[in-house]
Sequence to fold (106 residues):
Amino acid sequence: MKGEIMKADEIKKAILENPSLPLVFSVDSEVVGDDSGSWVAHGYSVQVTEYVIYDDGDMGRFYVKEDIDELIEQIAERQDKEDYEIAGIEARNMDWVKAIIIGVDI
Fold:
């Protein structure tokens, strides 16, 4: 219970320090992977960072700025030549949005 209170304080602090930023919830697929119509998660993280949603041709994928290397790899793999330099330029020039990200996990 004490850990949950501390994490709630982290969320509250992030909101108070960044009142103009949107709240974005990133929910792990294992949390919502069942067909019961509802879900419960016990673990979560809080960070103030930038994110982007990249459409890889199949579906949109969510990336935070700290995971830009994964995004660059994804972009490069979709290109015929797998040019990581060009993919890096494309990734850095995307419309990144600063937000309070609440990651929800099992």
In short: The beta strands are 23-27, 43-55, 60-64, 97-105. Residues 2-17 form the longest helix (16 residues). The chain has a mean pLDDT of 84.
